[in-house]
C-alpha cells in the first residue's frame, strides 16, 4: 500500500477477523494454563467454591480441553473454509459457556474470557469465511 492509498481499499472486517483469530489463540493458551493450574490445585482460585457439578480438578480438565479446542479452531480459521468458520464459532461458544460455569473459581477472569469469546463469535459470524484464503 502506498502512501496515497487509504485504508478504505482493504476489505471491511479484515482487522476484526484477524483480531478474532488472535483472541482465539490467546484465549486458548490462557485456558490451557488455567486448566493446568486447576488440575494442579493451584492456590490462585477462590477457596471453598461451589461448582455446578464435581470439583476444581474436573473443571480444570474441562477448561484444558476447551483451550485445546480453541487453539485448534484458531489455526483452522486460516484455511478460510466455512467449516473452519463454524468450528471457530462453536469452539468460542462452548468456551463461553464453560467460562460461565467456571466463574466460581476465578470470577473476574472468567467474565473477561466470556467477553472475548463473544467478540470472537461476532467477528467470525459477521466477517469470517473464505476471505482469509485469498490473502
Shape: elongated
Q: How many beta-strand segments?
A: 0
Average per-residue pLDDT, rounded, comes to 80
Low-pLDDT sequence parts: none
Largest sheet: none
Output the number of helix runs. Answer: 4
Spell the H/E element sequence. Answer: HHHH
**Radius of gyration, taken over Cα atoms and rounded to an integer in Å:** 17 Å
The proportion of strand residues reads under 5%
End-to-end CA span: 14 Å
Structural domains: how many? 1
Helix fraction by DSSP (H/I, runs of at least 4) = 55-70%
Class by helix and strand content? mainly alpha
What does this structure look like?
The chain is built from 4 helices and no strands. With 135 residues, it is mainly α.
Task: Supply the key terms.
mainly alpha; 66% helix; 135 residues
Short description:
With 135 residues, the protein is mainly alpha-helical. The chain contains four helices and no strands.
Helix-strand layout with pairing:
Elements: H1 14-39, H2 56-77, H3 82-101, H4 107-127
Helix pairs in contact: 1-2, 1-4, 2-3, 3-4
Amino acid at each position: 500500500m502506498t502512501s496515497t492509498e487509504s485504508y478504505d481499499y482493504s476489505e471491511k472486517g479484515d482487522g476484526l477477523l484477524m483480531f478474532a483469530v488472535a483472541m482465539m489463540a490467546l484465549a486458548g493458551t490462557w485456558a490451557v494454563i488455567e486448566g493446568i493450574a486447576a488440575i494442579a490445585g493451584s492456590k490462585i482460585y477462590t477457596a471453598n467454591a461451589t461448582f455446578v457439578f464435581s470439583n476444581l480438578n474436573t473443571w480444570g480438565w474441562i477448561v484444558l480441553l476447551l483451550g485445546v479446542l480453541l487453539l485448534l479452531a484458531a489455526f483452522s480459521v486460516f484455511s478460510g473454509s466455512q467449516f473452519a468458520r463454524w468450528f471457530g464459532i462453536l469452539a468460542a461458544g462452548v468456551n463461553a459457556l464453560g467460562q460461565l460455569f467456571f466463574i466460581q473459581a476465578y470470577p473476574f477472569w472468567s467474565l473477561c474470557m466470556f467477553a472475548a469469546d463473544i467478540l470472537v463469535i461476532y467477528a467470525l459470524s459477521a466477517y469470517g469465511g473464505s476471505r482469509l484464503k485469498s490473502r
